Predict the structure.
Amino acid sequence: MTTLLKDTFQKGVSIVNRFVSLRPSIPVLGNIFFSAEKGKVILRVTNLETSIEIVLSAKTDKEFETTIPAKLLTEFLNTVRGKEVTIEAEKENIILSTTDTKGTIATISATEFPKPPFLETKKDLAKFETNSIFQNATKVAFAASQDEGKPVLNSIYLKKEDDKLALVATDGFRLAKQLLTEKTEVDEILVPARTFVESLKVAAELEEAEVGITSDKNTNQLLIIGENFQVATRLISGVYPNYKQIIPNNFPTNISISREELLAAVKTAAVFARDLGNVVTLTVDKKNTVTLSATTLQIGGGTTRVDAQAGGEELKISFNSHYFLDGLAALKSETITVDFSGALSPALMTGKDEPNFTYIVMPVKSQK
């Protein structure tokens, strides 16, 4: 018999359940691997692309392994009452009990569960503070492509820069880059953006103080490891765009402006840009004024002026409002700088209090 706190078990099942195959190619991939060992329970899930393992504290008087249907186990734990859950193996079933409920669930043998490529040792890992890398990965992941047919652009690029780790994401229309402050031994890897962020979210939810990251070129796996969890996910093969070439270094025009005021102005212009491919126009004049506008024959138009500190040449440039707003949402500084490299060249956004974050957005040709 194995006994766990119900809340602990429910949380663990909920976490690993996110990685269960929606359409499993074989029945066991729809199950959670359950191993009762001395003082702990191990839960594992794999969809053959990504595998996760978490360790929960438990009381066990008899060790056993099995696999339990993920959906049924989740629904059972979400509906029963009681502080503890006991689990017993009985032939090809498990029996789950609380103070007033008892359920029997048919299982599949643990021998049918694929062996995940987890590490047996936690040595030689690049270590990062969990909340920091989770927040920073989230800060760039939105810029990755949502097109599953473009796996390279669907990824976050982890690249060593001067002993520090740069996180980069781009979909070809904008680019986000965050430079971490910790030194790293990670050299250059390409990981699925959604899986990377979700794995770091698991670490945060399990209150892991730090995570270790490493890659295994032999198995083509990225491994994210904490005290009580591991995630292994397949690395993406391909050549990432040379992002340093995308970042401009010559800026004839620049503005320093309130992020909130610019955000509001772009949102207002975007109301009139829905039938215009979401294109809004930004104008910088020499009177320290930035104007955001959009006009369509069918809807009408709107113009908002915002005070700013402007330098350099006057400029009129158009952007996709969604991409521009995403950059403003990622920045948190009260005052931001937008550097323009020309009416048809990329613009660079940075925050006064965020020196390690860079956002590049490509302009579009104004539709009149």
About this structure: The mean pLDDT is 92. The chain has three domains: 2-112, 126-244, 247-361.
